[in-house]
Amino acid sequence: MTELIPAPRSVVAGPGEVRLTEHSRLYADTATEGVGHWLRTVLRQGTGLPLREGRELEDAGGDGVGLRIDPELGPEEYRLVSNGDGILIEGGGPAGVFWGAQTLRQLLGPDAFRRAPLRRDRAWAVPYLTIEDAPRFRWRGLMLDVARHFMPKEGVLRYLDLMAAHKLNVFHFHLTDDQGWRIEIKRHPRLTEIGSWRARTKTGHRASPLWEEKPHGGYYTQDDIREIVSYAAERHITVVPEIDVPGHSQAAIAAYPELGNTDVIDTTALSVWDTWGINPNVLAPTDNTLRFYEGVFEEVLELFPSEFVHVGGDECPKDQWRRSATAQARIRELGLADEDGLQSWFIGHFDAWLTARGRRLIGWDEILEGGLAEGAAVSSWRGYAGGIAAARAGHDVVMCPEQQVYLDHRQAPGPEEPVPIGWVRTLEDVYRFEPVPPELTPEEARHVLGSQANLWTEVMEDHARVDYQAFPRLAAFAEVAWSALPAPAERDSAGFEHRMAAHYRRLDALGVAYRPPAGPLPWQRRPGVLGRPIDGPPPNR
Ligand code: TNX
User: Fold this and answer.
1) Which option is the CATH number for 139-510: 3.20.20.80, 3.40.50.2000, 3.40.30.10, 1.10.443.10?
2) pTM of the full structure
3) Cβ of 406 less than 6 Å from ligand 1
């Protein structure tokens, strides 16, 4: 039963076990009451045990569970002891206790992950052991793109639960893109009235001749967002919102044509984009655009308490700025060298704006081009290079190179994989991903806050597709981000696969539609109608 994922720092097992029964009590000290509430709720669902409240730690003695703070431990560190006195989980902060509670759930076996007990008469046992554990990185993230395909709120809450089960703690919420605007902004209602729906959708990759001829869309109201942020916080997950500027903005321009480069194209003719790729229709670098987005970010800051706010900054083609008299005048007026300078001025504006409000900007590694704003952090996605350059320049970095942790890329070669993306990133590739490149000195490496896996959803139109792409690779990623693994070549991938056998049973109980080790099930395959070049060079760039 100790086939834990992610692997803890140390486990010392002894003979014997604690048996949880209907008489078992759960005690939580004041600081860990929230964790106690979470643990009681999920265990009651899966096991049927009431885990009545203990008034003091002694009530949890023998066959109960105690939760409390041990100030000697780090904030996310925990110790789980199961012995003749019962089960005691101590953490340096509530987050540490919460991760310990996740470990306890795994120790109880796969059925503890169900929503209702299979039967009432079974025993629930936890072996005698001592687990000491702490995360390697403080940023253990998952990015979910809800712009390309909208994921209704329930699905997002479910992903937060799946993240928590894997001890992931940063949810990077990609809320806007060319193909959809997904967050209600009260002062600019057309962003969702117009920007959250597209008339049709390209099927498969962008070279496909096929379309799904039906409207697609949806958005989160501000109350939905508050609920998501609060649900995440209960699970010790920080939500980092992304509003992508100045590229990836066609949905916003379709809603408010004055945001685009009106002296280059007729932006009133644009609609929410219905295909994939890098879009030439970018924001105009005008005062009107800046004021508009300051308004957007003001509402965003009210909804998301996170230290970091993501402003995108990726894939912003400069052609329209080259042809725009307005953009060229701005370049001259600001004394900039070129259009790259304009992009960096644009990002720099929001860096200063966010910093003045006590937040920090983070953006995709393109924000390094033309000079990176001081204090800004970088999501390094086009490989390690951006992250290395940023760390050397003293900027914080989240490593998420597409070569390793892009979960939209296919997980095996062959015609059965249901994605039109040529690159193969296997479970083992992800397991051998190292967030800190050897090029960095220990001093520079301190700027690597951690890592995240990214789920872009061009080809994932529902939650079953997202599950298929995310799992099992997200489990490998979680271990990379949490556990103190050795260098990639020395990692025990056979041991990991052995533990995965137990983990698949947990994912089954959770209802995750993962990719089975033997390949996709018939319903997970996709008929060969995508116009996809199989296993060739990446067709999506
Ligand atoms: C690049 S990663 C993008 C996304 C795409 C993704 C597909 C990044 C910052 N931009 O817009 O969805 O590739 O893999």
Assistant:
1) 3.20.20.80
2) 0.97
3) yes
